[in-house]
Every structure is written in structure tokens, then in C-alpha cells.
Amino acid sequence: xxxxxxxxxxxxxxxxxxxxxxxxxxxxxxxxxxxxxxxxxxxxxxxxxxxxxxxxxxxxxxxxxxxxxxxxxxxxxxxxxxxxxxxxxxxxxxxxxxxxxxxxxxxxxxxxxxxxxxxxxxxxxxxxxxxxxxxxxxxxxxxxxxxxxxxxxxxxxxxxxxxxxxxxxxxxxxxxxx
Length: 178
Known about the structure:
five-stranded parallel beta sheet; two-stranded antiparallel ribbon; 9 strands
């Protein structure tokens, strides 16, 4: 874990988006120049030297982190988007949500068998979005090296879910929420 006090810049919003849920708002952390810099630096420091060629992130907050991490790693960035947002041929991957299903897509030419990929997102809860991103990367022939995030909702067991889905890879989070 990183030494920066990330939790002091993450705001708890009780009963949002529904009663009983405590929403973890990372926008104050990203809005703080030192906080944002430390997020990117700590994620990059964890993955530097591993030969990462592409960073895959899902919209929308994942884009904020993934693109900055990719830049710092001198890697390319691949946007995993909702259906209908990408103009060329795509790979699609459906995934389960607590309240239904969703889908992510990447361009078929976004990754190759030569790519070594990390999946970066703001939050890992159940792991569904991360699994969908990893499955898209594998459809394109890329190798998934690991997963990185700011917040890990440990009580939802995302590491175990990823492992059960065949993605028992490096998992790095800056803050664990129990």
C-alpha cells in the first residue's frame, strides 16, 4: 500500500445512490493536485519495468486514471466503452451488475498478441467491469498482467471473483475498504 493519506481526500456520502449504501467520492482526491499526482505515481511505480504496452480502462472515471498511467508508462491507452460509442468494428463483452447486465466494447485493432496489458479503474467492487475489460483484452490476443485501482471494496471480494473468472493476476489497490 502507498504511504500517502488517500482516505483523507475521499468523501463518504451516506445513503447514496440508495439507502444503506456509503458512496466513496474520489473526486476531491482527483481534484487535489498532490493527491492526483500521488495516485498516478503510486500506480505507475507498481507497474513500471513490467513491460506494459497498453492500459485498458472502462468509462468514465477509469479514463481519468488509465490515460495518465499509460502516459507515464509510455504505453498506449485503450478505452473500453459502452455500446454504440466506438465508430469501427468492436469486440463486445457483457458482464453482470448487481441490478442487471451491461456491456463494454473495444476496437478490434486496439490490442494485439504482442500487447501486455494492465486494467486500471477507480474502484474495484465486485470485479465485473475489470473481468469484462480483461476478457476483451484476451479476445484481442493480449496478455493481461494485472489490475490496479484507487479503491478496493474488500468486503465484496473482488480478488476472489477475478481469480474464479480465471484472472488470478497481480492486483494493486491504494485503499482497501473493509
